Amino acid sequence: MTVLFPAVQCEWHLSGLQSTLLSVVVFTGMMFGAAFWGVTADDFGRKPTIFIATALVAYVGFLTSFSPTLYWLFILRFVVGIGVVGAIQVEVILIEFVAAKYRAAAMISLRAIENIGGLFEVLLAWAVVPTLGWRYLIAFTAVPTTLFLLLWPVVPESVRAAEMNRCSLPAGRLRAAVVEHRGRLGDLFHAEYRRSTIQMLFIFFAATATYYGAALITTELFSVDYCAAPNVTSSSDASSSDGCGCSSLSSSDYGRILLTSLAELAILPIAIVLSDLIGRRRTLAICQIVVALSYLVLLTCVGSTWGVTVILFVVRGFAMGSTAIIHLYAPELFPTQIRAIGTSSGYFVGRIGAMITPLISQLLLRRSVHSALLVYTLICIVGAITALLLPIETKGRRME
Description:
This protein is mainly alpha-helical. The chain has helices at residues 4-12, 16-44, 46-64, 70-87, 90-97, 103-128, 134-148, 159-164, 194-222, 235-240, 251-277, 280-299, 305-333, 336-367, 369-388.
């Protein structure tokens, strides 16, 4: 989104509101997808869910490159958002396969691979968008997703989900409790899990809003002199509001986006070590506090572009850390019968945080940079307190 939307905005002369809605529709699709794929994964298995969702993303993603109008682009990106959340069920399979002492390293390594994909996308955009345009970027992006479908024969089903759904299992012995009933959404709010579920959902909201906010804010802060006019609409936004005068990302912009994206890879090893040493709750709190403090530094007005880049490096790194840890915490918290539903519920609420993020990091920031940064700071502070108050620590927790 960071590299795609500026190009679309310039080609179709979108207003600030239209470009913001382009971000919102993707997250809206992800929110609806989270509500659907969690139930599908628990009822029919993780593997079929992942591959159906991936096929949807590949096909509709490729079709997006032929969008004739903005409204078609809205519709197709909405459908892509639905599919993306289903593919994330790979996290549930991973958690169900890996022993307790390796869960943190495995999950956060998966997030690191995801980040490498993001770095590849920035490099691809840097090479393709200035010469061929954003349509080719979307078409080329669909290629790796399509290739993943060829792995269907070698990707195993989760043994826990297979046993629960009475599917054929790999050779060997599996000892598991007999499933007396399938989990439903209401089970998340049973007395045993009610408080943990509510607090987990808010942390998903805070972590997701913070993460996507950091990504979208990166290009916005590079295009506005917020030290000179922190409470005035930027000139770029004023000109784009009537469909004129936008500017595409420069080579130096791509370089800075790439650098701040590298922060996610740099901080993830710290998150791995901390989560295994001091637990998931404290690690979540630390990540959120560091992000809040970094936003406070930006509020004091960092004078140089490279100073902003360094602060955003820290913000994106620790925002990814908190996202990775909550994605680890949720599957560890719930038993097999409601694991996918519980995790997908977190994705659902997280997408609400993602949906409001463009309103803060694009619309509000262009009118008052300090107000936007203050909103993110408060979200992080409340998220840190909520993490510390979680009633269940899942470090070393036995999978039920």
